[in-house]
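S1.2 Input.
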Amino acid sequence: MLTLEQMKKLLDDPSLTDEQILEIRDQLYALAEIIYEKWQQDKKAGKLPVRPVNGQILDSSQGSIPAGS
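S1.3 Output.
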């Protein structure tokens, strides 16, 4: 977890109180958790893109990548 001092340095806004900075940090962690949970759901459902083949991005519903690619 980021410390208060790390957050102060990252935000670089002396007008923010310590409480405001900690609230921003907590909200960022909550957002990261939502994004991670959505990624896990998409991964489980096969909705994530796979690595490019011949310059094309394929989603995982289009099957596996051919051998030797």
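S1.4 Remarks. The mean pLDDT is 85.
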